[in-house]
Amino acid sequence: MTEKRTVHDLALFGGPVAFEQIRHVGTPNIGDRSRLLERINDILDHRWLTNNGPYVQEFEKRIAEEAGVKHCVAMTNATIALEIVVRALDIRGEVIVPSLTFIATAHALLWQHITPVFCDVDAETFTLDPDRIEELLTPETSAIVGVHLWGRPCRIDKLTELAQRHNLKLIFDAAHAFGCTVNGKMIGSFGDAEVFSFHATKFLNTFEGGAVVTNNDELAAKLRVMKNFGFVGYDDVDSIGTNGKMSEVCAAMGLTSLESLADVIDTNFRNYEQYRDELSDVDGIEFLTYDSRERSNYQYVVTLIDESVTVISRDQLMDLMWAENVRARRYFYPGCHRMEPYDSMFPQTAARLPVTESVVQRVLLLPTGTAVSSADISRICQLIKFAVSHGEEIKQLLGVRRPDAALVFDQT
What we know:
alpha/beta; Aspartate Aminotransferase, domain 1; Aspartate Aminotransferase, domain 2; seven-stranded mixed beta sheet; three-stranded antiparallel beta sheet; 35% helix
């Protein structure tokens, strides 16, 4: 990287870019390419490409074992998985859900004419605040959907007690939390069901995919029927269903990913520790931390920017880094409640979400994963240090211009 001696050396102001190739928050982890191709060739040789083939069955077995649950039902993606489990549990009316989540969490409900009721998050965990839920309950409330955010779990005990006391279904969106624990117990076995994402940007991926995990035998059987058009036999359909099946090639990628799971988590942890170490002396940048007593996937490096200290704002810092080909991200800006159609449907929601409103203005995620090297991280940290140390000058040059719109790609 060409050393940035003055602010005019920044790419944002016409200087050379720090990275010729873009560094993303979630560049896909590939695993052992030769092992993957071996599996794909086997699939092609046997010509069993989909419809609950042997690779899907093996993948489901392995995921259930990893999560410590009886059943894993693999699906084409996590959004479809959430939609199907919501329908399988006969959830209707209103559902309590955080706004600080990927938009798919809310869409999966409204798509089925269920009203998402946005609840604020806890100021410490940034997950659904159980103390704010009861005030939102109505006779129409049928369920709670908690989101384990950035690998950090919801307050599961309190949410479980609330759901039981009010006779509500409880689902967890665990898109960020595969391989993580709560009190030593793997995430996946809580509530009525949990939903994993295996999208390409996840540390464990199936190209595109998701799954529902549960200990409920009846629910698992129902999910298997619903994800396959309602078929209960070769030519016997006894209920409505859709196409939510995972393909054999996707499952092959998932099995390959599982084989390198420990190495990927180790890499994520080293990246996380390096970022914290190299930015430890930068005032105004706080890192989201993880409980060292629990297992975590360290999939995301999450920072909180305090503009009153850094002078340069979170959005200005993001603009600066994007210009250098560092795609730092504002997860989950601006909150589901400020996106359509929810902003128009519930225009007063922001007033009851003060923690969410604050968090979405400060969060910035940094590139990590196996495609990001130690040298890359040092260069990114140098950029951040330079930007903060020249915050006043950069802010004056940028003025009050509105940040450029971010490129759209999966944030789940």
